[in-house]
Amino acid sequence: MERREFLASIGCVAASAPLAKVGARIPAEPAGLQLPMPPPRATMSLPPEPEEPGRLLLDRAWQFHQGDIPFPAIKGHGWSYANAKAGQAQGAAAVNFDDSDWPLVNLPHDWAVDMPFDRDANPSQGYRQRGYAWYRRAVRLDPADRGKYLELQFGAIATNATIWINGSVAAHNWSGYNSIYIDLTPTARFGDDLNIIAIRVDAEKMEGWWYEGAGLYRHAWLATRPPVHIRTDGVHADPRRGIDGRWTVPVTASLASILKTEAMATLNAVLSDAEGRTVAKGTVEAKVPPLGSAEAKLELAVPSPRLWSVDDPNLYTLRLSLAGPTDAEDQRVLRIGFRTFRFDADKGFFLNDQPLKIKGSCNHQDHAGVGVAMPDALWEWRIRRLKDMGSNAIRCSHNAPPVELLDACDRLGMLVMNENRNFNTSPDYIEQLQWLVRRDRNRPSVIMWSVFNEEPMQGSEAGYEMVRRMASEVKALDPSRPVTAAMNAGLFTPHNVSQAVDVVGFNYQPGLYDRFHAAHPDLPITSSEDTSAFMTRGAFQNDPDHHVFASYDDERSSWGSTHREAWKAVATRPFVAGAFVWTGFDYRGEPTPYEWPSASSFFGIMDLCGFPKTAYWLHRAQWVDDRPLLDLAPHWNWAGREGEPITVMAMTNVERVALFLNGRPLGEKAVDRFEMPRWQVPWAPGRLEAVGYRGGRRVAHALVETTGAPVALRLTPDRTVMAGDGEDVQPITVDAVDARGRHVPTAQLPVRFTISGGAIIGLGNGDPNSHEPEKGDSRKLFNGLAQVIVRADSGAGPLRLTAQAEGLRTGQVSIARVATTPRAQVAPTPSVQTLEGWRQSPASPDKPDPMRKPIDSDMNSWLWLGTGQIEAAQGEGNWISLRATFVARRRVQANGGILRFGGIVGRAEIWLDGRKVAEKPDFAEAPLAVAVPASSEEHVVTLLVESRPGLIGGLSQPATVGAR
Length: 964
Ligand code: GAL
Known about the structure:
Immunoglobulin-like, 6 domains, six-stranded antiparallel β-sheet, mainly beta, binds beta-D-galactopyranose, about 35% strand, disordered N terminus, Jelly Rolls, single chain, about 10% helix
């Protein structure tokens, strides 16, 4: 809802009724109207996308250690030999590393946003130290899942990551923006034999020149699938309209099998419409070779579907189920949309054969308070903020976005320029590009693949050759969407990237639009990035000493344009498909043109919290055509500047605007929507009002008023209801009001918060120069506003937030939590110390000496055993010795503990540190436990095991050391 509709909703003005005639009394506004945020919605956020059967979130209870942990220096033959083997990773990557005192964190997690601002850190990363960290997690797998395909999935990790599973490297990932999928199946452990995931994150590495955060900042998942299954991102189902105008959905599912023999599988596809009615079905069979791949293809006919568009983002649901030789089916649920689009070199962009000017913004992925650890609901909120402004597109600059952002774009109707991060044609990087296309090629929102942003090689033959290769990779996976590249130079060199793309992206250079179009009349072009203007939200006077920009749209970078100039250049040229303003929201880092203490950018149409700058009302007035809109800048609190001229700007889409101060007419102006009317008004306290006209009729009204001093705090949520699922999040606006309940736009007060029924996960106020911590329970209002991001606890009941400031009435808000089943999570599993590295002596006819051990260079006569592995010994006789060493974890070191053998087969003696501590008199398999004394020394445990004919003795289950 925009402000005007809000007025109507609270009975102030009728949304479409003409206002009173000029000169007539303008109706008084009710109290509290000037809050520049929409009123609360009494609706929930969008429900989560359907869960993939068998896939669980792995977000909870990760053990976290900030800082690096050096690997031990390996010495000696025995250790060197062992270290070189699978499963034998050392240091914090080792299965048995003592992580018992590491704190637990939940994902999404960005540790950089918790760091203090540091002048020595990189301004591009928002003056936050990033560094290194480790994450570890134990995962217990149900023995019933043996034989299934198991996959770990990470949405992204900033920035370089090495992942070990059960002591073996499972992945090296050298980008902070792509997903990582790891096949757990071959080395999976089941039951009490826990799987240990260890991740070393190197966030010293940078891929950008903006804030990138640090750590496991997107979701993680554990997928359990039947042995014959559909690969992750393995479905291609992108509707096509035939030349006869009839639609089909060609469906290709990429299948895989972990079985030992060839298997037949049947793919069933059911497409249903938004009301749940089945509109098409299909079935196909495929043969899947063992450990191989196959494709199952079918086509669904949907002759005349309801189309997807930015105004009516109508989605269909495609349900796929794959029946293989086992009982369980593999299932996927996808949302797809039917729409056509094209870029015309003369006429710009068309969606469903209708011309549509792209009104977009470029955005990074961080928000106030949370950094890049964006909760899903905040993505939806951000896309709504952009849509409310009349925007219809977003460019994911300059990297692959999270799926949750794309979900919101598909569901809310937002076009996406989907951008690749690394410009590189070597295999690792081509894989990143292929992954992006594979993951996102079914989405109706995605209309372009951008292979790079501003690469110095763009005007060279090498750059051209690279883009030619990247474009060909994209086309191989998705022939339906154009490839673009965001060029800021090189457009006219003999060999350049524009010759290898379908749509040429212009970063800035509006002065070259006409020349390029004249030279290449058949090549579609769009702005891929424009504007780069500066504003500080709520400020209306430049103050370079304090790094403050007035928000009149007069300040811009040397390479950029003002918002108005940039839009005019695009809007007046039909052949330019659209605009992508740099940026929709402020972001950390790139505090251009300033540096310390400024830590975040000034480019946003909105600030880091999503509070509107003047640019917001400006774009809204330019991008929304139908509803009459009228807003005024600045606020009207200028005590001390009596009589001084104040620049007043109207942001409007009406034809004429008349301005009044305290009822006195100040002149009426014709509106040039590219420029917007301005007045110089000698300041006097009171009411500054504007009346807007279309066709001579009064259609809009705006008011700013001089307020009194703040007397109370106010909390305004985005929604009055939240899901009590432990995940739902929303931003709450904090402001101060005067005695008449009016928003005080100049308040700069410290505010303290208390919460019940939820948690504060971050705070912000949009001040690029603020060094207040983003976590905690307090924040200053900056130019009248602050934001608290709250997460609702699980279950029903109220979430209550209270705001206090000295001398002001307390602000309070109560939000209803609706009990909602949380998304399924992998259960937290405390990690335990499992004894590894068992050596087994050759067999002997007599009971062996418990002190006997292999010599360090003996790799062969004493066997190496895995946990719970029983193996017949070489040599003659019924006796063996099993030997392992361990240093207990810190708690056991201090207090002593218990060594538990899950199962011993055969008669046995147990020796610990040279003393016999237990005997097992029977041959039958049985567990056994012995006490471990408090000690930080290495313990030696030896089992002397006697077999008998027909029964091989040994350890049938893992042995663990834990607290008493
Ligand atoms: C562009 C670049 C953006 C950002 C912007 C600031 O050149 O593509 O990432 O740095 O400048 O104006």
